[in-house]
Structures are given as structure tokens and as C-alpha cells.
Amino acid sequence: EAPKVEAIRKEHKRSLKLSYKEQRDLDLLPEKIEALEKKLDELNACLTDPECYNQRGLSTVSEELAATELEYEEASDRYLELLEKVEEMEGNQSS
Known about the structure:
GO molecular function, one term: DNA binding
Radius of gyration: 21 Å
Structural class: mainly alpha
CATH topology: Helix Hairpins
Organism: Nitratifractor salsuginis
Helix content: over 70%
Distance between the termini: 24 Å
Number of strands: 0
CATH architecture: Orthogonal Bundle
Protein name: ABC transporter ATP-binding protein
Keywords: ATP-binding, Coiled coil, Nucleotide-binding
CATH class: Mainly Alpha
Number of helices: 4
Order of helices and strands: HHHH
Pfam families: ABC_tran_CTD
């Protein structure tokens, strides 16, 4: 029975680490989110400037804004998910 307990502990410890992809996302997402925020600001500014949206096309700017908002939301959600996982792991380690 002791080997089963040891196997469970090893599996639990393994689950307390971020995968390579998760760690990479955690490292890179803040920069990506910041870049997306700047892009959103630029697109929103363009929509308030008739010269800008006439030049680029109102529907083009609107479509780009919608796509960027979706990408921003997905990146933010992923980052928050990873932060929660890290907090949970840190909480488990201190227990």
C-alpha cells in the first residue's frame, strides 16, 4: 500500500507544476495583452477620426476592432486562468 501512496504523491507533485506551454504563455501574455490594448486604443481613435476611417474604410476598421477585442479577451482570460493556477499551486505547497 505504501507504493500507491508514494505514486499518488509523485503524481500530485507533477500536477503542481506548469507545463512548458503554460509557463511560456504566462511569460509572454502580458506583452501580448499590452500590445492588444494599444491596438484597441488606436482602432477606437480611428473610429472617432473621419479622415482615418474614410481612408481605411469604416467596415474594415470595425472588423479589425471586433477581431482584436476577441483576441484581447481570449488572451486576458488565458492569463487570468494561469494566474489562478499558480496561486492554487502556491497555496497547495504551503499546506
